[in-house]
Amino acid sequence: MKISKVVENMQPSGIRAFFDLVLGMKEVISLGVGEPDFVTPWQIREAGIYSLEQGFTSYTSNKGLYKLRLGIQRYLKNKYNLEYCPDEETLITAGVSEGLDLALRAIINPGDKVLIPQPSYVSYGPVTELAGGIPVYLDTSKDGFKITPKLLEKHIDKKVKAVILNYPTNPTGVSYRRKELEEINKVLLKHKILCLSDEVYGDLTYDFTHVAFPTLPKAKENTIYFNGFSKAYAMTGWRVGFVCGPKEIIAAMTKIHQYTIMCVSITSQMAAAEALVSGGKYVQQMKREYNRRRQFITGELSALGLKCMLPQGAFYVFPCIKSTGLSSMEFSRKLLDEQKVAVVPGTAFGPSGEGYIRISYASSMDNLKEALNRMRKFLEKRA
Amino acid sequence: MDEILEILEKDGRATVEEIAKMTHRKPLEVKNAIKRYEKDGAILKYKAVINKDLIKDSDSEVRALIEVNIIPQKDLGFEKIAQRIYSFPEVTSCYLISGTYDLLVVVEGKNLHTVSNFVAEKLSCLENVRGTATHFLLKKYKEDGVILKQKPENQRIAISY
């Protein structure tokens, strides 16, 4: 056998096959997309182009361009009154994905456990395994897709090293208020469990102010904070994210980062630095647009008889499809076959997503309306 | 700006029901607000933005931007003379401008001839018009915030996490 055991066991094959089916089909309306439908705002693109014209084509410091790290310091200070040193506590990564990989590799010893609330973003488990850790999935489907102190306590033992939080959450759109986070934080502090907080959708929170985990009492020394430009600034393809945390951890992560990818593309870093300077108003514009679609689509889905809670952040709704009697995968496959609408089965995000589908509203109103029409036909046929 | 206006400015076809759902308001509330905006003149009209380059049988249309120098009238300033100019149906837009000239007048006509006739026979001979400079429009790249190009194919992968 040429392939390592860990890699060979990765990724359930049913989902892969479904994805291939979608990709091979023409004229599908896809609500299965995990990225903004907006193009990066021109001002930010222009900064990338200009940097190329100026001949910025070299490596940057491993930690990332100083001016970008400085911009991040200001952003966090202004937004959350959160202070991280740009020299020792900040690292620029190729998206949050790389940041998480680095963090897990930096902290895990073989056999350490990592708690992952499910349904969860797909990479958390595999990346934990690659780092030699054991993912422990917490089924949140009974608690409105939120983790509670009780659920946490139930799974904590001596081997648990860290928990990966992600809020607003992909795929459910759920987020947490300060009070709920404080309760979670108390449990983590009590058991000395590190919090890896993926807050890449933080700027896309609609109903209340997003609370950054490290701003909670005594949480900063115990938290690795992840954020990036992909979602809020519509910059997925640029691959820029950042990690802030205690300096020993950032130093350890930087070691791995320098031996693996060295640094993020300088063009992308230049563009990201501009995003922090002038991108705020575009984020607000896009957020307003998402918010309208969010309210529209949740109302429409409920009218179709698919129960779904109003998501508080990101650009996903996670309606329940149990009333159709179909499994998530059957529902998604049939909807694709019969009506050419693509959604992601909830089980793509773990077994606790069974009975749900993820719908992305990062798609134009026209697309959403047409997709809902088709879903209506699909459901009427089954009523 | 009221979100209702923001939505309508982007898509004049958005229905009352849709806007109500998008903004989480009651349909009646939205309907009344729109009526009020129409009555107050905040919403003037609804129209489609058409890329005439793509319409093969459309009457070829010529557009010109005309800079107009004006001698202001006592007590009335530019108002009266501007009114005389913008009342011509050929004039599609008319702006008072700071700088080296006073009015910017946008004129549309069937061909070069009709536009130049308008300038020579109607505009230039107005009493208070001191001079004009006519610029014919060669190509439209962007109009009313819309880039006049066929939409590029969606480049996103159809499905992703």
Structure description:
The complex is a heterodimer of chains A (383) and B (161). The model of chain A has no long low-confidence stretch (mean pLDDT 96). Chain A folds into two domains: 5-40 and 281-375, Aspartate Aminotransferase, domain 1 (Alpha-Beta Complex); 58-278, 3-Layer(aba) Sandwich (Aspartate Aminotransferase, domain 2), CATH 3.40.640.10. Chain A contains 13 helices and twelve strands. In chain A, helix 4 (66-80) packs parallel to helix 10 (266-278) and helix 5 packs across helix 9 (247-260). Chain A is an alpha/beta fold. Chain A is 43% helix and 13% strand. With 161 residues, chain B is an alpha+beta fold. Chain B is 31% helix and 21% strand. In chain B, the strands form two sheets. A four-stranded antiparallel β-sheet of chain B has the order 2-3-1-4. Chain B has a two-stranded antiparallel ribbon with strand order 5-6. In chain B, strand 5 (142-143) and strand 6 form a beta hairpin. In chain B, helix 2 crosses helix 3. Chain B is extended. At the A-B interface, helix 2 and helix 11 of A face helix 1 and helix 2 of B.
